[in-house]
Amino acid sequence: MTIKLVDSEKELLQILEIQKSNHYDNIPLETQNSNGFVTVKHNLELINKMNSKAKQIIATENNVVVGYALVMLKEFKNFIPALVPMFTLFNTVKYKKNTISSYNYYVMGQVCIADSHKGKGVFKKLYAKHKEAYSQEFDFCVTEVSSNNIPSMKAHLKVGFKTVHTYKHINDEWNILIWNWE
Fold first, then answer.
1. 109: which of 55, 70, 84, 89 fits an S-S bond (Cβ 3.0–4.6 Å)?
2. CATH number at residue 88
3. What predicted TM-score, i.e. pTM, was given to this entire model?
4. How do residues 19-71 score in pLDDT, each as one tens digit?
């Protein structure tokens, strides 16, 4: 297995395939509870733009993408309407002595592992590559995870993320998590 930065549109298309098969609309509730799920759908145009500004991180095996962890810079905050409330909260939620928005951060745009590779340490390796690639450029990585996505919450906390804020939005409870690289 190789953990690397995306360098082709073919890899971006494979990310979208994994995303589609793990989207909560496409998997039964029992599977969501045991394996986790993703809530946001990207399209090729957007993921291409994101990749042009900050290379996305993937796990490949035999040149096939088996996991990904997306980098979403602040400048993309209005491209996915479902994420606008999160970015708006960053203007008021404090981390240490300042609001999150006052820091130089990026958002973990989404992390997902193909079913065939879950439980094999891919999640941790993807995040290790994030730290290697982006810790010198950014203060921290921030993400938002549904309280209902217990596998994802556990995995993020295990990597080193800390919950800094919890809030309710529509029918769900969300946790804002920060991974500080200090």
1. 70
2. 3.40.630.30
3. 0.88
4. 888 766 767 676 656 666 677 788 999 999 999 999 999 999 999 999 999 99
